[in-house]
User: Fold this.
Amino acid sequence: MEFIDYYKILGIDKSASEEDIKKAYRKLARKLHPDLNPNDKAAHQKFQQINEANEVLSDPEKRKKYDTYGKDWQHADQFEQQKKSRQQSQNAGGQQFYENAGDSDFSSFFDSMFGGAGSSRQTKFRGQDYNAELKLQLTDALFTHQQTLTVNNKNIRITIPAGIENGQVIKLKGYGAPGVHGGPAGDLYITFIIAPHPQFRRSGNDLFTTAKIDLYTALLGGDTTLETLNGKVKLAVKPETQPGTRIRLKGKGFPVYKKENEYGDLYITYEVTLPTNLTEEQQKLFTELSNLK
Amino acid sequence: MQTEEMIIINEFCIHHNIDPGFIDALKNSGLIEVTITGEKLFMPESQLPYLEKLVRLHYEMDINLEGIETITYLLNRMTDMQQQIMHLNNRLLIYENV
Assistant:
């Protein structure tokens, strides 16, 4: 447990007046408040620190305790214990002061000094926001489906709309840390991480893939079957199709986020595979063909 | 037909212990839209987190209405830009995974 200099955190000196503390807190809150720094974990942590500093220094009673024990807070325990042992017969509740409040938005230093998240505070504070990442396969994002997440031992069932994008963040209101003194709970921000697919690449709502066709189909035309994310499609290959030719299948791409029955397109690039291990006759025929050009 | 829950603004003010004049000022500056039925002001429940954010900016951080307008504008721009970065990153991935 590290000593935390609340004066330093607020950038004020020990003789600061209540007004100075208020001013310093507000100035920093304007920079670091989670409302002004969405998805910025570092800012959220700093805001928590200034909040804690303000909580202590703006309360004259707490400030006095902090000023008395703060600098040598390690000895506060011993001091209190000595005091307690002297008053043991009369005062059985003294140890309550040092009870840890368990999960809290405040540092362990704060907990040890004040026994939890400041029971005398009147101001309502919004709970901290939580951030979580959810990894999906590309195929998971094809359909609207439900998943159960466990956040801080609480099961949350969420609906993931089809077409959700890699890096997209959704907010679940009120699923963050509980508020302090009746303040609203924070929110839960879920960032979706969609793993790359070995065969299909996605750009927005469009999908890109390659289809291998043999030399004869490329030259003479024909049919080939392609396995898409939604099932097989039959492709009619035009005669004299060049390697790298790209075709578009309209509406066979990815579902558009939160738009029912709207889909992007599927782009297919043909890769032409050349025959290997030619027989003598094949070699002869290719030579004849070569002589014809 | 889609229906949406509405909240009574006066009750919101009582619950949060705020001056109804502040809500009027937000309404007049175009930061929030309210529905007036009879003598009561309502707003959609879906707008509640946004309104609570504006209240926090004003009452917790002492930011005046002009400041709130500027912050709201800049936060919206930031969200748009983050969205754009996300799309561009995803487009870049196409080339990186080749």
In short: The longest helix of chain B spans residues 65-96. The beta strands of chain B are 6-8, 35-37, 40-44. The first strand of chain B starts at residue 6 and ends at 8.
